[in-house]
Each structure stands twice: as structure tokens, then as C-alpha cells.
Write a structure and sequence with these properties.
This protein has 187 residues and is mainly α. It has helices at 14-21, 48-61, 69-78, 86-95, 102-108, 114-132, 134-143, 148-152, 156-167; strands at residues 7-11, 27-30, 35-39, 80-81, 84-85.
Length: 187
């Protein structure tokens, strides 16, 4: 049974999160234990939408077949990454040849530069939701990317091409994102 309650832990330093979780993050949801932990400091604001999206999606839809894909939904609900709207940022990253292939994201998400991978999967999730709807997104959540062609009727590559074409409709915006990117262009 699902109860709409969460234990929220707010800490003011990364060291406190490290002591609690054993690893350093800015926010983390543990839906199985009804806990969401947030860092709130002068340098970092609460990631409430992001972590609560994880929390509630896991409670409502269950654990995703591809855990990394839950980041796409969480970034989508936040709709911003480093202060930039996710689709505009994805368009900028595309125009600067910084995006990863969706097939790469689906295999090695947590090994990739998070300043590209997170907004990219958030924008791709936004595209899937707006074009194909929540029912297909839920099915993808439950069944996983291995069944993407069965769910959407087209391949992962074809969906990626549709999304990239959709990004081309977004007007160029002045985004200065270079300081956020790692120097190694391993794409």
C-alpha cells in the first residue's frame, strides 16, 4: 500500500551526506525506506523536484527496469539543469557536438559526464512524454530499453533521430555552458 509520506532529511554539508549515505551526492531518494535526503547550502539549493520525482515514481510505477532512466524523469520534472531549460540546453549541446548517442546513454549512463548525460536524458524523456504520452513512458519504465521498439514501434535510433530533429525547432539561445563540461571529449 502506498502512503503519500516521506521522511525528508536536509543537511547543510556534503560531508554530512557522506556520513549518512557513504557516498557524496547533492540529493538522494531511498523510496524503499520512505526517505529523501537533500543538501541545502550557500552553494547548492534543494533538489526537491528531482529527488521527489524519483521517490514518487518508484512508489507509483515501481522500480524501473533501467534504473538510470529514472534520472530522465527526475530531470524532466525539474525542467532545468544548472539554471538552463533542459531542451534549450540539449539543443546547445547538440549544436556543439557534445551529446552522447542514446545507445551509449542506455549502456553506460553513470560513467558519462553527468553535465551532459543528465540534461540529455531529461530532454529525451520530455520528447517521449510529449510525443508519445505517459502510458508508453510507464511501459518503458516497467519493461526497459530492451523493449523500446516493441513499445514505440520504432527503433531506439529512430526515436533518437526524431528527438534530435525536434531539438532543431528550438531557437538558439545564448548558453554559456563550457565551464560545466569536462575537458575530455569521450563521446
Amino acid at each position: 500500500m502506498f502512503y503519500d509520506t516521506a521522511n525528508i532529511v536536509i543537511v547543510d554539508t556534503k560531508e554530512k551526506i557522506l556520513r549518512i549515505l557513504g557516498f557524496e551526492v547533492q540529493g538522494f531518494a531511498i523510496p524503499e525506506s520512505d526517505i529523501a535526503i537533500f543538501l541545502n547550502s550557500r552553494d547548492y539549493l534543494l533538489a526537491t523536484k528531482h529527488e521527489l520525482a524519483h521517490y514518487y515514481a518508484f512508489h507509483i510505477w515501481g522500480r524501473p527496469a533501467d534504473n538510470w532512466f529514472s534520472e530522465g524523469l527526475a530531470v524532466y520534472y525539474d525542467n532545468k539543469w544548472s539554471g538552463y531549460q533542459i531542451d534549450s540546453l540539449a539543443k546547445n549541446l547538440k549544436d556543439n557536438n557534445k551529446l552522447f548517442k542514446i545507445s551509449t546513454l542506455s549502456k553506460t549512463f553513470y560513467l558519462l559526464d553527468p553535465m551532459i548525460a543528465y540534461p540529455q536524458i531529461g530532454s529525451f524523456t520530455s520528447f517521449l512524454l510529449s510525443k508519445y504520452g505517459k502510458a508508453k513512458m510507464k511501459e518503458l519504465w516497467i519493461r526497459g530499453f530492451k523493449d523500446i521498439k516493441m513499445i514505440y514501434g520504432i527503433s531506439k535510433k529512430e526515436l533518437e533521430d526524431e528527438w534530435l530533429k525536434d531539438l532543431d525547432k528550438i531557437a538558439n539561445v545564448n548558453i554559456d555552458y563550457g565551464n560545466y563540461l569536462k575537458q575530455s571529449p569521450n563521446r
